[in-house]
Amino acid sequence: MKITITGTGYVGIVTGVCLAEIGHTVTCYDIDKTRIKKLQDRIMPIFEPGLEEMVINNSERLSFISDYKEAYRDSEVVFICVGTPEKKDGSANLKYVYDAVQQVVECVKSDCTIVIKSTVPVGTGDNLDRVINQKNDTKRFEIVNNPEFLSQGTAINDTMNASRIVLGVNSAKAERILRNVYDGFRQKYVVTDRRSAEMIKYASNDFLALKISYINEIANLCDFIGANVEDVALGMGYDPRIGNRFLKAGIGYGGSCFPKDTKALHWLANFNDCELKTIKAAIDVNENQKIKLIKKARKYYDSFRGLTVAILGLTFKPGTDDLREAPSLQNIPILLEDGARVKVFDPIGMDNFKKIYPSEIEYCNCIEETLEDADICFILTEWPEIVTMDVSKFPFYMRNPIVLDGRNCFSLEAVEGKNFIYESIGRRVVG
Ligand code: NAD
What we know:
It comes from Ruminiclostridium herbifermentans. This is UDP-glucose 6-dehydrogenase. By secondary structure, the protein is α/β, with parallel strands linked by helices. The protein has 3 domains: 191 residues, NAD(P)-binding Rossmann-like Domain (Rossmann fold), CATH 3.40.50.720; 89 residues, Orthogonal Bundle (N-(1-d-carboxylethyl)-l-norvaline Dehydrogenase, domain 2), CATH 1.10.1040.10; 132 residues, NAD(P)-binding Rossmann-like Domain (Rossmann fold), CATH 3.40.50. 43% of the residues lie in helices and 14% in strands. The chain is built from 19 helices and 14 strands. The strands form 3 sheets. It has a 6-stranded parallel sheet, with helices on both faces. Strands 11-10-9-12-13-14 form a 6-stranded parallel sheet. A two-stranded parallel ribbon has the order 7-8. Helix 19 links the parallel strand 13 and strand 14. Helix 9 crosses helix 11. The longest helix has 32 residues. It starts with a strand and ends in an 8-residue tail after the last strand. The mean pLDDT is 97. The site of nicotinamide-adenine-dinucleotide (NAD) has 26 residues, from helix 1 and helix 5.
């Protein structure tokens, strides 16, 4: 089967390489020529553990091209993996999806199955089907919704061992084709209509966002009443009806999915005059949570003017170079505006951050250099380098050893009696 992947971002490149791994011949196309050139030279445009080795190992079956006519001409199945970013009003911007699908329809020689992997609002597949198949009587297009559930940082394992493959189809033929494509994975299928598949993606992501916001609110209350949110989460998580994942309190979720997918579903619900109040709450809680450390810092300093602030971690989570909606992007502008000197360290994310802040902040080579002379330290991402550091470095290097940990990286026992003030999320203050 001739498979083309459209878009070589986090979803496209991982989908492409995993399909090659199970034996398919895959062509990946991206509108961004620099990205394709890099991939042709085996330089990964994104950081994703294990990706480079897998691309190299599958070189024979995997090609990268920047000519869309060539990419689509003989395709039998095209996976659309382009971005669906948030518009100003919160709704999903479908421009990239429509543009890509239009090029497929124009260029492909004969019948083709177009698989929408991008997260798209309910009804998108039906609209595409109507518009495309009405206009074409020579070629027939099957439109499938096949949402993606991978997490950045564990994307390859998530794809090779997905918890389920959701197929939103409206013909037996489309289902058969997709089952053939995915045959090598041997995973559980959920086969449904396109609208339900589109809804499964939003409902899943928004549920996880809601779970995070819920535990964050519980953590905020724990701060006031003297309970420990980690023990609370442990006690809750043993209940199989609740489960222990996504119960880690912190300074909120970021990334390319949860923030935009909560807003997009909320927008769609309002558009249908059916507001989702729980999703609205998740969005609001998360906005406040992202600047929780700034609020905690105000206890120690009225203003940041003239202070040196050390920031450990910039990416929205460990294991990725992605900065989309990362709390660092909310916190650092506030600190700069207030006149702070900001020093940062992130093992992977600094190159991307430099594209946004080329000169306003100081980029450090290691944790120690970042902490030197700092008046306060914010921990924004739980990178292994940070979680495993020797905490006695805080009082050793900092001018005023006050550490605000937005990711609960250390146990309270580990920081007890170490001569610095340590505040985390939903746990008592130490020091
Ligand atoms: P991304 O921004 O990393 O990559 C999108 C790529 O598409 C870019 O390289 C861009 O140049 C390319 N592109 C745009 N228009 C194109 C066109 N007309 N033809 C060819 N290429 C084009 O996006 P992503 O993070 O991979 O996400 C893609 C979709 O998958 C989104 O809808 C997202 O919500 C969804 N999703 C993402 C994740 C994730 O963890 N990143 C997980 C599940 C689902």
